[in-house]
Amino acid sequence: MPESPSIPVLVLGGSGYVAGELLRLLAHHPVFRVAAVASATHAGVSVADAFPHLAGSYPEEMRFEDPARMRERVRAAGPLGVFAATPHGTTAALLDDLLAAAEKAGAGIRAVDLSADFRFRDPARYAAVYGRAHAAPHRLASFCCAVPEHHPGAPAAHAAQPGCFTTAVVLAAFPVYACGLAEGGFFAAAVTGSSGSGRTPAQNTHHPERSGNCYAYAPLAHRHEAEMRLLLAPACGGVEPDVEFVPHSGPFVRGIHATLRFTLRCAAPAEEIAAAVASFYAASPFVEVSTAPPKLGAVVGTNRCRLGVAVRGRTLVLLAAIDNLVKGAAGGGVQWMNRLFGLAEETGLRLPGLGWH
Predict the structure, then answer these.
(1) Which class would CATH give 165-324?
(2) Which residue among 164, 179, 214, 236 is the active-site one?
(3) Could you tell me if 228 and 159 are in contact, meaning their C-beta atoms sit under 8 angstroms apart?
(4) What DSSP string describes 256-325?
(5) Domain map of the chain by residue range?
(6) Counting CB atoms within 10 angstroms of each CB, which of 13, 56, 224, 232 has the fewest?
(7) 3-17, 139-153, 242-256: which has the minimum mean pLDDT?
(8) What span, in angstroms and rounded, lies between the C-alpha atoms of 126 and 285?
(9) Active site includes 145?
(10) Whole-number pLDDT of residue 1
(11) pLDDT tens across 316-354, in order?
């Protein structure tokens, strides 16, 4: 029996947590095949040594490659997917170089950015949020940034996955505005696990600081707040809503639990609001809606988002639970890459949860 056709993909920034999740998701993807993993800090190291939990899925001889070698792979490729899990501030120049090499060689590649470098089409806004000029402003228009559930079909060229906090909050808030249920802005508080801080430990993010602890940081000043406003504008007639966002560091590793408070235009029972939100997401295989509060344990390890609805008078509360590494990053990225290559968006992503972790 002939083998199923496969599409090679490259993973850039391959030694981080998001890249590790990408490799986990891609290990048994029915179409995508990992052709190379690039890492400036781990070049020559076995992927199985860097991620021991993947040892049964990747052979010992698969090693991280120097990012400079990716130019050769891009120039020699036909259809090729590129996942960029590199740090923001470095991704734009790296992808610009690879895309230019591919264009020169006439190679067709599709890129999905999992950093923050292609989330804003306006280079001035990027500079205002990140404090530096964008390294490839001429590429911004070729990237579509959205939660996959809010952009039907495939982008024309490339995609950028929003941040993990943004994904959780926007998945909850978008239908509220799109269905005309709320007025004014909203307040959101979200607790994230330590994996959201990346693999390099810092004083406030490593285990002794977070274990048995919970604290807010960057209240009303987090960089994802600007993303939330931008991505919610289409649901608000093109006007960005006011978002007051307070993130928290939680004492667990994976997941985001977000609480959003709105003012309803008209009082309505929770069941009615939940039905409207569920109808909005009727064609979205990864979003589940209920009047019961969601629990992180039900989504960790999966690409699912669980939404919960509560109402008292005109006060509406939306609760959202996602895995920050999967739905908030790597899983959303695979959703986008599936679409870019004309695959069903759930391909390779119908994953059971971890249960106990």
Answers:
(1) alpha beta
(2) 164
(3) no
(4) EEEEEEEEESS---HHHHHHHHHHHTTT-TTEEEESSPP-GGGTTTSS-EEEEEEEETTEEEEEEEE-TT
(5) 7-145, 165-324
(6) 56
(7) 3-17
(8) 32
(9) no
(10) 30
(11) 999 999 999 999 999 999 999 999 999 999 999 999 998
